[in-house]
Amino acid sequence: MSNKNKLDLPTSLSKNSSMRLDLWTWKEVEKYLVNCKGIILPIGSTEQHGPTGAIGTDAMTAEAVAREVGIRTGVLVTPTQPYGMAEHHLGFPGTMSLRSSTLQKLIHDLLISLVMHGFQRIFIINGHGGNIASIKAAFSEVYNTASSRHLPVAKSLRFKLANWFMSPEVFRQARALYGEREGQHATPSEIALTLHLEPSLLAKQSELPDPAPAGPIYTYKDFRQRYPDGRMGSDPFLAKAEDGEMFLDKAASALSNDLIDFLKET
Amino acid sequence: MSNKNKLDLPTSLSKNSSMRLDLWTWKEVEKYLVNCKGIILPIGSTEQHGPTGAIGTDAMTAEAVAREVGIRTGVLVTPTQPYGMAEHHLGFPGTMSLRSSTLQKLIHDLLISLVMHGFQRIFIINGHGGNIASIKAAFSEVYNTASSRHLPVAKSLRFKLANWFMSPEVFRQARALYGEREGQHATPSEIALTLHLEPSLLAKQSELPDPAPAGPIYTYKDFRQRYPDGRMGSDPFLAKAEDGEMFLDKAASALSNDLIDFLKET
Amino acid sequence: MSNKNKLDLPTSLSKNSSMRLDLWTWKEVEKYLVNCKGIILPIGSTEQHGPTGAIGTDAMTAEAVAREVGIRTGVLVTPTQPYGMAEHHLGFPGTMSLRSSTLQKLIHDLLISLVMHGFQRIFIINGHGGNIASIKAAFSEVYNTASSRHLPVAKSLRFKLANWFMSPEVFRQARALYGEREGQHATPSEIALTLHLEPSLLAKQSELPDPAPAGPIYTYKDFRQRYPDGRMGSDPFLAKAEDGEMFLDKAASALSNDLIDFLKET
Amino acid sequence: MSNKNKLDLPTSLSKNSSMRLDLWTWKEVEKYLVNCKGIILPIGSTEQHGPTGAIGTDAMTAEAVAREVGIRTGVLVTPTQPYGMAEHHLGFPGTMSLRSSTLQKLIHDLLISLVMHGFQRIFIINGHGGNIASIKAAFSEVYNTASSRHLPVAKSLRFKLANWFMSPEVFRQARALYGEREGQHATPSEIALTLHLEPSLLAKQSELPDPAPAGPIYTYKDFRQRYPDGRMGSDPFLAKAEDGEMFLDKAASALSNDLIDFLKET
Amino acid sequence: MSNKNKLDLPTSLSKNSSMRLDLWTWKEVEKYLVNCKGIILPIGSTEQHGPTGAIGTDAMTAEAVAREVGIRTGVLVTPTQPYGMAEHHLGFPGTMSLRSSTLQKLIHDLLISLVMHGFQRIFIINGHGGNIASIKAAFSEVYNTASSRHLPVAKSLRFKLANWFMSPEVFRQARALYGEREGQHATPSEIALTLHLEPSLLAKQSELPDPAPAGPIYTYKDFRQRYPDGRMGSDPFLAKAEDGEMFLDKAASALSNDLIDFLKET
Amino acid sequence: MSNKNKLDLPTSLSKNSSMRLDLWTWKEVEKYLVNCKGIILPIGSTEQHGPTGAIGTDAMTAEAVAREVGIRTGVLVTPTQPYGMAEHHLGFPGTMSLRSSTLQKLIHDLLISLVMHGFQRIFIINGHGGNIASIKAAFSEVYNTASSRHLPVAKSLRFKLANWFMSPEVFRQARALYGEREGQHATPSEIALTLHLEPSLLAKQSELPDPAPAGPIYTYKDFRQRYPDGRMGSDPFLAKAEDGEMFLDKAASALSNDLIDFLKET
């Protein structure tokens, strides 16, 4: 990614080793807002990822992509919300799910907090398909709240959802590497990214029998019966840490472009 | 802390480099549940911590204490919820707050998820005073839900809130080191812990003028006027990274004892 | 559509001129449930459809498709919910919107009602893109409720969302007829269907200036400014009633197949 | 009804064959609002109406009355909300009920939508006794919202509930025709109106044994036991389509007068 | 009221000077439940009652009637809920109102508490017209909850609302004493009862100018403009303490009969 | 308490025999607000208090303390909310509990009502430990609402919670009189106060076996098993009415000082 996608920030912020909001002070945020009204909010999920995948896969990957996008673009990144809507995975121990209505309220409150400070363009980097409906539903509620409260920026607010695993570049790469064996859940592409980020996970990988074929999602009990080990048509043992590095680069590149377009949009 | 506080776990779990749920697979959790029904849930906040403190202070510290307690006791640790109830800090840019009602729903859903898997004793390690009321209120709602749904474990459920910064050992140490200058918010003790955990934060520290004296908390606008730079009677520039290491040890030691007592309680 | 997609219903139900639940008695429903656990629920929206389109377009079209699917398949059709999530259209007089959270509760209650009677496969025929996130979010809540209440059918429940305007057959036909001028809102395809259904609407059609190009959707005030007459890149005056008849047939054919597959799914 | 109860509308609206909002464009609504701030919102229910009555009775009748009132008075009529609060009928298959809290939120959102456009006097024509408490409760919530948001029209808002089946003219006529056999639910008067509106329903009518006597309403299980075929003291086979036509006229006449008084009220 | 309306209670309860739950112990309640599943719950409101009426009028009167009914029938009386839905009175200082949705949740929780102990017939004695819709709406929610939780007594539950001021005996007496000057709010009948209960209020009474005529109720701002001193067509200075004593007797007599019928109902 | 803690009120209010809002008229409140923006709101609970304690103990005591503080300080006292959060006592018949979320909404609405009239400093006198978390959580919600609605007084609002039984003076006295036998629930100190207030309760007192020792609080079923007669380490038969009088004086004295400080705070 070239420098053209890098925002110009005042020197006083240059000492930050990263764009992580949690490592900044409020005074640094105050300065940042003079030049940029954009911010990135990563969100994952805490849910089973097959017999060999880490339960934190979706949060780890969303966080890694978001922080890389932050560094490349110079846009601030909030802490990662690690819990999302994973009701259909509750048949597997370790899954921790927010109801969709709770997740919507959480998104609502976080966005309203940012809006109160003057942030106007919020870019959510999401690592979990099950969050999509809730995030979209929440957007309409936040617009409603901002308008109902007559917030001065209400009209200018723009929220955008970016699912890193659905970006065309990532999708094509996954197909190229794994073909049909990419599957739909606990996919080699996301597992690869976690192996790149957390090498200790390598020790948990192993060959697995053929997965249940990908299919529909209904209740969590049906899910467990239909996909007994948690995988939906995927062969995660194909994943390699070096693939993961590539996925991170491709996702960060694609989403950085999307983010810059979003911030430049008039 | 001696080994007596260490739970005996089957060898198959020994390859885990830590007790982090997000790095485990669901099959590992399944095995863990055979021997232990306890789990630790860390929760922080994303809010201003004075002109030199990191916005992520409360999440960073709660996470560090929780993970250390997990390692010492052999009890599983869930991902850290980084957002809490910080409404009164919303006058400072960068603060991201959940309304109390949202936080209660979040706690409710996370605890119910754990209960569905068979966890019966949930130990919340909290890094933020503003979360206390919401967490306690949520406990009663979860007990109600578990009972209303006739969950088999409903009667055996026990939830406990542990605020690491309020444990007597930590409190005494902070008084010994900083006296009255410990203050109430953006305290040297919590800042010290962040310096230990994240050395890059050292570069942000600097001497500060006398803080506004500690006092009551009402609305966020009143808060900003009463405590113009975010500190409540504290001198965070007294903080040293080595103090932080000691606070971590004292907190982990105290909370490990509390946790083991909680798990052994009949 | 051949008869193979027709469910076999007992003779006692044959006197029904249609499959409309609102024209049946409860005793007829009781008999129907002996043979079929499936039902269709149409949902629309009440919102502006450009300067010449009817405000009831989405409800009218969803209802027509649903009733035709009902007749072709022999599956019961509930009344059409005419109000959906149309917050972004509130800048235009006549739009009546449910908040997303309200729509989710409505879907929840209607589905739970059907589940209580023994319906297990519910097929929602939707006429409005803005409803999609809310409907999907609601599904997870209904599964949760059914499971929490230990309903005997909880595990067998299956809900499916079918957006008639997004079925490939319809999409291809619209492209073939109108090319890029199909646009995204107040499209000639949906307007054509309303002209077929309600010939009195013909008198309102007229040539229009070039529409604002299709683009993103944020707040309702931004929407009105961005799309001043309500159209998103569409030329609805291309619509003809005979096109509408064809769209109805194509949509009903595609969705009937989907529904039968859904009911036959094991 | 004489012309004195007809509002004067601009010629540009005269081509509307009816006063149905769903068949209007937003531009027509915009013009309408220049002259009239009143609107009619019909609401019914989808619930059992005895062994021979249509499940959609309450929606069908409310819609017919509302549209007739619209035509007679020149006041705009929104789409009919077909689902209401029918919890006590859930013991009979086919009943689809909103919880009272959901119905209140729905009424709230629809009224707020109308208020945002400038409508100030909203006249709800209701076909179901079970909706009354929810609608009245919702009114207070909408007034609260309008006031909390400082809407300019907040002070001028007026909502009125009109239950067509309780208007004295209708009540007297029903007594005259059916005496005590009118009963309380699945009454000959409402069934008569459906026969007038939907002649196909005639084929479902038949003589019935004596109904359970009218009495109190508690839970839905108690309801089914107390009123085994769904009727409460009524003999719906007395209903004739021509009676229905008369009920429609009487209801429309009475409610048109009420509506005009409501709109003229200072 | 004769003794036939007195329930037979075991001697062990005879030392109670009254039937007030707040003065009983849980052991006494346990014994009571062996013989009687009925209980009375009084509810009032805290709202303006004209320039001379006490703000607590509705709670005071409901409590007095409920306690008298309790003594006459031997049925237990819970504490009086002093706050109700009084949104339309918020234009007058001192009014404290619950939103309708809050009141519904309160009624829900109180009734569920009683149901959990085995109470099956709950008789609400209400002192405020503005509460009626909320209480009725809440009933349907409680029935739903009891059924959803599969409570053993769910099917047998019966709730009844008794508005003391609307009982025919009271109504007739008020008409006889005050004619049209009874009015609709801050009526001489309710004020008379407060004078009987709280003689200190006599000092606040005084003659007043003609009241605004009774009429409709919309927003609280409209209410204050329409009824500038809070009275709706009433002349409360007609009230005498001795009238109040009579109203208490008539109300208690009528409601005791209703309650006994309710408890005896099969 | 000296007169220095007495607010100066206009003569026109001097005829009030007490500071009870429920006995005032709205015109008196209007006058009061000219001089004082403070108000007291008492809240109790309706829950088991051991085998000999009154179920209404917490409401009775909070009310008595609040009214005494009102008289001593000249600050207005609202009606006592008799129902609080007592979920853990639901295993004992007679306990009536609000869910924490309901109690929070109730507190919210009551405080917002007072704020709308211009009250700015609200002092809650609480009689029940189980209410504390809910009340504190509610405070943050009310501040949020007041700010969201741009209420003119939003910034000046201050709410304070005073738990009479936790004031140091009361605590010391209880220790002095009863030592360890004070316990944690159904304590002699609170029972003593009820005996002072309601001498009829004396007849219910009796010696009791040793109580279960004080300990933790989890679910209501666990509570009943752990504390079989409802007491937590307390010997309520030590209570004497004259002790109660002393507790009332000490509590009123301590809280009057706190209240005056609160009102004088700049």
Automatic annotation (TrEMBL), chains A, B, C, D, E, F:
InterPro entries from the UniProt entry: Creatininase-like_sf, Creatininase/forma_Hydrolase
Domain of life: Bacteria
Gene3D superfamilies named in the record: Creatininase
GO molecular function, one term: metal ion binding
Pfam families reported in the protein's UniProt record: Creatininase
Keywords, alphabetical: Hydrolase, Metal-binding, Zinc
GO biological process: riboflavin biosynthetic process
Obligatory cofactor(s): Zn(2+)
Keyword presence, Nucleotide-binding: no
Family stated for the protein in its record: Belongs to the creatininase superfamily.
Protein name as catalogued: Predicted amidase
Source organism (scientific name): Prochlorococcus marinus (strain SARG / CCMP1375 / SS120)
Biological classification of the source: Bacteria, Bacillati, Cyanobacteriota, Cyanophyceae, Synechococcales
